[in-house]
Amino acid sequence: MVMGTERVLAKARKLAKRLADKIDELSDSLEDLELEFAMLIKTIDKLESKQGSAKAVASDVQIDVSIDVQEDDDFDVTNTSAPSAKVRRKF
Prior knowledge:
By secondary structure, the protein is an all-alpha fold. The chain has a domain at 2-53. 54% of the residues lie in helices and 0% in strands. The chain is built from 1 helix and no strands. It has one helix at 2-50. It is rod-shaped. It starts with a helix and ends in a 41-residue tail after the last helix. The mean pLDDT is 76.
């Protein structure tokens, strides 16, 4: 039974590593998008000020994007699609 537990633990660690990598990738992409958005807003503000607009519509838009990443060692890897132990198969 120890081998089975070790195998499940190894798979869970592999899955956790893959998810952590994806989270890092998404965080980097989100930071890039925030920078591009800020540059776009500045460009819109400049163009509107050149046109003599009294109030820039784009400056009214505020988007606050925050990511709260909590590293938690406890996670449930229960396979809910697997048949329960109470089901007996007839061979």
